[in-house]
TrEMBL record:
NCBIfam families: PRK10700.1, pseudouridine synthase
Residue ranges, compositional bias (Basic residues): 289-305
Species annotation: Providencia burhodogranariea DSM 19968
Cross-referenced Pfam families: PseudoU_synth_2 (PF00849), S4 (PF01479)
Region spans: Disordered: 275-305
Protein name: Pseudouridine synthase
Amino acid sequence: MSVKPQQTEKLQKILARSGHGSRREIETFLKEGRISVDGKKATLGDRIEVKPSVKIRLDGQLLAIKEPEKEICRVMAYYKPEGELCTRHDPEGRPTVFNRLPKLIGARWIAVGRLDVNTSGLLLFTTDGELANRLMHPSREVEREYAVRVFGEINEAKISQLTKGVQLEDGPASFKTVSYRGGEGMNQWYNVTLTEGRNREVRRLWEAVGVQVSRLIRVRYGDIDLPKGLPRGGWTELGLEQTNYLRELVGLTAETESKVAVERDQRRLKANQIRRAVKRHSQSAGRPATKRQSSRPTAKRRTRI
């Protein structure tokens, strides 16, 4: 459970959460000197740690205090379609990755990195900002895998150059691995891995050796794969095991609870939720819902979520 020890909160927030008035009303009570904490008059701006031994009174009457709810780290896997932006709001009204996600109360989804507007595939979201920051930071070297359809002349010398290192405008870069996956003529599929998330890095690496990327799909982040059977625009919440894998990967303590429904209920609800989200967003974007493809390039390993 993600709970900070000795966490303090403002008095007006504590009392408002406990049902003793609005924050503005309680601020007025504090200014009027009507609230005390352990026998001492409280003032506006005071912060305290909520614990059973603390006695808060209003006009001498002891108040019942509600402790803050424990925050549970949640992680969502989303199949980003091409054409969506990785931003919360777009001034031009274009669709964003946040439009389809389920709404939260008392928390918000934070994207773990970004994908270009023309890139599709796995995008992780979490309610834990620290987890998101650590997963994105280059020092953690979390591996990402992409399926890439390229167009151009490819030989062993170019593959060697891509794995040994290419000088880009923002510094040297390279793929950790490059593996051939098939294709016809000048259009070939490769799977590549890297441990950074620089802007358009995969495309720029291929372009540096004279090869154009015609399609790019992220199929894995760490050991979490793009879920099999998930339609474009669909999402699924990770269970406790997968969430804790990501937390432990970047040095965070494991969670002990999950908000994911029990397996029986999850199977029943998830398909309908995804279909509704895809249909709703497709209608708002003014285009027909995208049908799920029967096959797509995938990662070598698969962590089922």
